[in-house]
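tool=predict chain=A
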Amino acid sequence: MQNPLLGDSELPRIDFAHEAVPGLVSVVIPAWKAGTHIGATLRTLGKQSYTDWELVVVEDGSADATRRIVASFAAEFPRHRVVYLRHDRSLGPSAARNTGFVEARGQFIALLDADDLWLPDHLVESVSRLQQDQTDIAYSTVILSDHASGMPFGIWGPTTHELVNFPRNLLNRCFIVPSATVLRRHVIEDVGGWHPGLRYAEDVFYWLSCSRVGKTFSYLPGVRCIYTKNRSGAATQRLAQTMTAFAWVVESFLVDAADRPVPMSDRAAARRIADAYHTAALTHLQGSRHRDPSADPRLAYACALKAWRAKPLRFRYPRLMLWAAMRAALAGRHCQPQSQPEAVPGMAPTRKRAAA
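tool=predict ok
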């Protein structure tokens, strides 16, 4: 199926190197400059009440203490298969996950980022829910924790309204955190791997791809994962860039009526696309370059232009473009009209999700 934003390429096919082992959970961790924090993450894996697991860590181009820490963890748990792989250069978290998927032997695959933490019942409750509901993907709410202080400052998960209107509300915000997710291996066999061109919003792209081809989700009430934010160099520090990529994803799934993961009129789709780009533009304009290095008035202009093209009768978008142009001029930058925002790292304008 052709898509103006993503072209006709599919999500990458994953050719598993091993047959699936019933009951086994393959824990896949993409790691980039993770030497300072992956040890704490692995300790929470070692404390899981579900003991039938293996570990695959893919270091994505960095070279620090990660390999040594993984080797030490493997020595501590000799009855478990532990695999360490490394990319010679950074290809992004999606590519690292895909590399890890190839080596996975589990009937289930658990996603875990190298700076997040699991509570001891995460795997046992997730696998139990998948088996009980006969669904494809299980997820739960997470505690948000500040990297520097280690202090919790909120939770992130679906509201009751979002659960009732799932997956439609994924087009408003992504409330499914990868580290709080366990999926059946056949999801990756059927849908494909993660989009290798996306370094931001790659998670919502994948969940929408799963929903689009009929994969089912189970929500586990309660919290079983601690999600770390504000770590230096993490994607969560680049909010403006993330919101820009999120708007790209929303457009890519809604621009073609035959390609939408949920029933939606053309008018409603145009409004949702415009709202997503409007939010991205405001995030660029209101963000501090000190706090968010991805905030850029030129991208604010481009996002506002995309919003205006989706809903040309909304005059707030030209005003937003004028504001962005003035901010760019004050910063000594020049705004040029663009058909779509540039500088979404690694995302070319000719890619596509998995085929149905």
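Strands lie at 21-31, 53-60, 82-87, 106-111, 117-118, 137-146, 152-156, 181-184, 217-229. Confidence is low (pLDDT under 50) at residues 1-9, 337-356.
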